[in-house]
Design brief:
Keywords: Membrane, Transmembrane, Transmembrane helix. InterPro entries: DUF2306_membrane. The protein is mostly helical. It has one domain. The protein has nine helices and no strands. Helix 4 runs antiparallel to helix 5, helix 5 packs antiparallel against helix 6 and helix 6 runs antiparallel to helix 9.
Length: 204
């Protein structure tokens, strides 16, 4: 039996993604309000932060709308347009995220966590684009599920940070763990969901 996400869970995820995306646009302002200290302290923030935050925010906002299913021509055109914008945002934000990972203030473990996220995020989207251009739309859809699971790391990161502050460990150690926890479970859940749907389809 396939894993099913309730509509309320999907709506909550979409709402969180849009909210975090809109809030992240603050990094495009000359004077950043409520800036995260670790983020602005990154030694490459002046170079990569506006690109990563701006394009990543756009991807967060556009991402949930890629999974709305309608079969009319207008919806198909809308999907192609917003999907292209989402893909471009991800492919542009990921390299900037890798640059930021190299300047992470929490050291090499955090660099590894966020750096792997950036590399895998770029690769997944590149595979999704390749499948779409080849007309392999079912495969493209699976890559895009993985893509949004990784994009959603921006949300889970912000959910874990206050929880990490409550743990009896040093804040830097919690941050290093969150560099992986923000995206690895997301990707695992996406893979489980995709596998359950494939098994259900094969059993029909």
């Amino acid at each position: 039996m396939p894993i099913v996400l309730s509509r309320s869970a999907q709506a909550l995820a979409a709402l969180l993604a849009v909210a975090v995306g809109l809030f992240s646009f603050r990094y495009l302002l000359p004077e950043i309000p409520l800036a995260a200290p670790d983020v602005v302290a990154n030694r490459f923030a002046h170079l990569a932060l506006p690109i990563h935050a701006g394009l990543g925010a756009a991807a967060l906002i556009l991402g949930p709308f890629q999974f709305i299913r309608r079969r009319d021509g207008r919806r198909a055109r809308w999907h192609r347009l917003t999907g292209a914008l989402y893909m471009a945002a991800c492919l542009g934000s990921a390299p900037a995220g890798l640059i930021l990972a190299l300047g992470a203030t929490a050291g090499p473990i955090a660099t590894a966590g966020f750096g792997l996220l950036a590399i895998i995020w770029f690769w997944v989207n590149a595979q999704g684009l390749r499948a779409a251009l080849a007309g392999r739309y079912a495969e493209h859809g699976r890559w895009m599920v993985r893509s949004f699971a990784l994009t959603f790391a921006a949300v889970t990161l912000r959910l874990y940070l206050p929880l990490g502050a409550l743990l009896p460990v040093a804040s830097v150690d919690a941050y290093r763990a969150i560099a992986f926890l923000a995206w690895v479970p997301n990707l695992l859940v996406a893979e489980l969901w995709l596998s359950s749907r494939l098994r259900a389809a094969a059993g029909r």
